Amino acid sequence: MLKLLPGLFLLLNLLVPAQAQDVLQKALGESIYVPAYSRIFSYPTRSDLLATTLAVHNVDPKTPITLTSVAYHGEDGKWLRSLLDTPVTLAPLQSTSVLVPINDTSGGVGANFLVEWSSETPALSPIAEAIMTSGSGGPGPSFTSRGRVIERRVAGD
């Protein structure tokens, strides 16, 4: 076991810088896919409805970003509606959120959001996540789902 530790340490040192560089890569805009769930099953015939809050945090301490689109898609992948009437500019370290209420099951079990943002100067990628909760006021299921960048626009694109 002790013989494996130096190799593991070397591997971790090689991986961490690459991941850190990816996290700190700045972009002019991105498309972020965020999974969401309108209900979860505890038995084949029993499920709990969930409210979903999509939160987007501008983590860049110096650069504003503009949310240009927040689309809500059903589990079949079809567009259901836009959750953003007009673009919203987030100042450095500012956040915003939108709610899909507990009684809205239009997205099905595996709904999702597609968040589009842009910036005039390169900015850090925001954190986009869905927070699902039973909303019953008592103990119930609550969990988060982090978004994943599926398209990145950088200078020169």
From TrEMBL:
* Stored Pfam families: DUF3124
* InterPro entries (alphabetical): DUF3124
Q: Does Signal count among this protein's keywords?
A: yes
Q: Which residues form the signal peptide?
A: 1-20
List UniProt keywords, sorted A-Z: Signal
Q: Which domain of life is it from?
A: Bacteria
Name of the protein described by the UniProt record: DUF3124 domain-containing protein
Species whose genome carries this gene: Roseibium sediminicola
